[in-house]
Every structure is written in C-alpha cells, then in structure tokens.
Amino acid sequence: MFNQYPLSERLLWLFRQTWPVMGEERGMPRAPASRSIFQAQSKVRLVFLGDVMRTHREWVPQVSPSLQERLGEADLVFANCEGPVLHERIARRPLFTIRYAMAREYVEQVMAVTRVPASRWVWSLANNHVGDFGGEGVEKTAATLRSLGANVVGLKPWDLIEVGSERLAIQAWTQWENHSIGRALPESLHDEALSKGHRPNIIRGGAPPSERHLARIALPHWGLEFRYFPSAEQRQWALQWVQNDVRLIVGHHGHVVQPLEWFDHSQSPSLAAYGIGNWLGVQWSWPTKNFGALVVDLETLGERRGQIAHYEMLCLHRASRGRRTPEIRLFHEQSERQGESEAIFRRVGWLANREPRS
Predict the structure, then answer these.
(1) Tens of pLDDT, residues 78-87
(2) Which of 23, 124, 282, 333 is most buried, taking the most CB atoms under 10 A from its CB?
(3) Per-residue DSSP letters for 164-210?
(4) How many angstroms separate the CA atoms of 16 and 3, rounded?
(5) Cα angle, residue 214 at apex, residues 211 and 216 outer, rounded to 5°
(6) How much is the pLDDT for 324?
(7) Confidence of residue 194 (pLDDT cuts 50, 70, 90)
(8) Cα-Cα end-to-end distance for the chain
(9) Cα Rg for the chain, rounded, in angstroms?
C-alpha cells in the first residue's frame, strides 16, 4: 500500500506533520489570499473544502455560526470523500488504521453541521483511499452519497454538474491509489515528458465535454503529504491544465495548507490552489488543524462568462471546545495559539494582500 511513496517521505511523515519544515519554497510566487478581478453582472458562488476522512469514533465537529453563514452563500460546496462509505451508523473504530471506511450517518452529519443542503454538495471520489475496499466499495460509496441527495464526481474522465441554469465540467483524478481500480493519466496532461514519468495511476481523462458549460475545473488528489509547497511536477501539470482552458484547480492530499498561484498569461486567467488542508480527519497535530475553504465567484453573463470575478481563501482552524466537541472556526475567531497558526498561514501567503469582501 505504501510502496508508492518514497521511503524518505514515509520516514518523515510524523516529523513533518508535527513541525512544519522550512526551505520548500523554491522561489514560488504566491497569489494574493483574496482578489476581486471585476464586478460580476451575475455569478455562481463555489466553495471548496478539503479532505473528509474518518476520525476515531467519527466525531463530527461543530461549525461556527459566522462560518456557516459564509458556506450558506455557496451555490455548490465541493469536498473530497477520502474513503468509502460502507456502514450505516457511527461506531467506535480503532484509534489507527490505514484503511478508511466511513458511515452514512457520519457523512450526513458532516453536511448537516454546515447547514448547506445535501443537494448543493459535490463529493469527489478521486483519491487514494476510496478504493481501500475494492471496486464494490467505490460503487457503494457513490450510491450512498447520491441517495443522500449529493452529487458525485471522479468516476469518469469528466463530470457535468448543474448549478442553477449552468453546468460545470469537472475533472477529478488521483495521482495515488492504495489499491488499483484501473485509473490512468488524464489525456489532457499526457505529453511525451509525462508519459515517461513514474505516475501511471491517475484517472485517464478524455476530451472535455462537448456540451455547453460555464467553466472547466480540476480537482487533483496529488503531491506528497505534509508538504507546504507543490513540487515542480505539480506546477507543470497545473500549467498544462490552464493551457487546456481549465479555469480553476483545487488540490487535495497534502493534509496541510499550500499557496495559491494565479495564471495571468492566458486570455482567461486561472487560479490554482495546490492544497487547502483537511476539512476533517488526520488532524492530530497543531499544523494540521489549520486549513482553508476557497470561495470563488464565476461570471455567468457577457464576454467574461465563465471567468473568475472574485476569489477568497478563508483561513480556518479546528478549535477544541471540549474533548468531544471541537469547532471549526474562521481564523479571526481563534483564541488559542493564534500566533502559531498565523505563522503557518502567513508562510503560504494566505494572509497577504487581502482585498475587501465582495
């Protein structure tokens, strides 16, 4: 299962998640944490959350009222379902396991505490844990999420998701698979250099949908865990997506926060959020309790239809209100160890050059 990761990385997992490692920046430019590009005539608002993984005893934290308000403004909320949904009710599980399986009740509660209806949720199944219990587990997970009223992406090259009178073209794929379920590299990224690489197990994608859609969005599950900056390989993939008219890239898998990058060289600028941390699960250390939610407004009218009008990275923290009742809060609501969290967010540029909320 873990042979896909370099031994040097596996040996450093515990260290990296406990003490953020410096020196990974490589001179990478960081986009502003929020930006208003133009005033939208009409818009759809999308919110992107990180990985949702099973926790010990599957406790679901509360969400602060101010964060609930921000999430409630979204036309769609995206999250990564990191593990199959196999059983009905929440039950005590082992403290540590390398095979994740969640309960239907757990996923229901994850959505309910945000006060966002299930019909506005989009769950990606493109990740390394969703196949931990084989293809049948993946199929059951998709069926369970759909029975709750949610949308599912990541089981085919491209998915069309409706939002109001518009549709979004979504390509969700994973660089890593603990158990192979027959995925390969997206054709949109499959040039000569990548075809000779060492990552053959990413979802294979065909041409984007021919049906009319508002914008193309990529949801990659990529990179190395507990790294605060993307690799040169990831940045090259992001550039190729942008060159294939992908407007927005929002990544998962790293479990920690990573910078934003703005691509302004194309006719329609694009944004890459390489990693936004975990919304829930694998938050044992202080650094991993700091994460984000990306808010993006897309124009729906005129010559700028499908372009990003505004974006904002919300800095979030999982605070302890008691042993069993943690709460997810906006950074400015945080009362404990705020300086340490600020240092993490500032390092990746999430506190820099913020513009007034639109």
Answers:
(1) 999 988 898 8
(2) 124
(3) TTEEEEEEEEES--SS--S----GGG--HHHHTSS---S----SPPS
(4) 19
(5) 85
(6) 62
(7) very low
(8) 45
(9) 19
How far apart, in whole angstroms, are the C-alpha atoms of residue 135 and residue 324? 34
Farthest CA pair distance, the chain: 54
Residues 128, 5: contact at Cβ < 8 Å?
A: no
Q: 240 and 191 in contact (C-beta within 8 Å)?
A: yes
**For residue range 258-299, what is the model confidence (pLDDT) as tens digits?**
999 999 866 789 999 999 999 998 777 888 899 999 999 999
- The Cα–Cα gap between 101 and 70 comes to 29
DSSP SS3 for 7: helix
Structure tokens at 260: 């934003």
Tokens at 53, concatenated? 């993984």
**Cα-to-chain-centroid distance, residue 142:** 18
Domain boundaries, the chain: 32-156+250-347
Per the structure block, which two tokens stand in for 71?
Answer: 């999430």
Sign of the dihedral defined by the CA atoms of residues 223, 227, 228, 229, in that order: negative
d(CA 126, CA 240): 19
User: What would the pLDDT profile of 129-163 be if each residue is shown by its tens digit?
Assistant: 787 778 888 899 999 999 999 999 998 889 999 99
